[in-house]
Specification:
Elements (H helix, E strand, L loop, with lengths): L11 E3 L6 E7 L8 H10 L3 E4 L1 H4 L6 E7 L8 E6 L2 E10 L2 E3 L12
Parallel strand pairs: 1-7
Antiparallel strand pairs: 2-4, 2-6, 3-4, 5-6
Organism: Vitis vinifera
Protein name: DUF4283 domain-containing protein
Length: about 110
């Protein structure tokens, strides 16, 4: 175990750093669809499937399914429609990403923007 002094920049990406991967929670996915093939398909649509959370595999947290996906640092969708057999499901996505930190610029009048 390590101890680190608190810093307001802890667990933040610096401006210009890209997110390579992120955990995403899939809300509204019926338990009958909690199979690796469906979770992989959702992951591929989100940017590229990487892994399934162990708690999701063991069905320990039934409020959501959680997967790790590749990201390109751009917009992350909040909704995803996916078709399974003859039904279309509208799934809410909850992204677990690091905050981005951007330095304020100071103009000549002394105010920050």
């Amino acid at each position: 175990m390590g101890l680190e002094c608190w810093n307001p920049r802890s667990r933040c990406l610096k401006e210009g750093e890209l997110r390579n991967e992120a955990w995403v929670r899939i809300l509204g996915l019926p338990i009958s669809l909690w199979v690796s093939s469906i979770l992989r398909r959702v992951g591929e649509v989100c940017g590229g499937f990487l892994a399934i959370d162990p708690k999701t595999e063991r069905m320990e947290e039934l409020q959501w399914a959680r997967i790790l996906v590749r990201t390109n640092g751009e917009d992350l969708p909040s909704l995803l429609e996916t078709g399974v057999e003859e039904s279309t499901y509208c799934l809410s996505l909850w992204w677990e990403v690091l905050l981005s930190l951007r330095q304020n610029t100071v103009n000549y009048s002394g105010s920050s923007g």
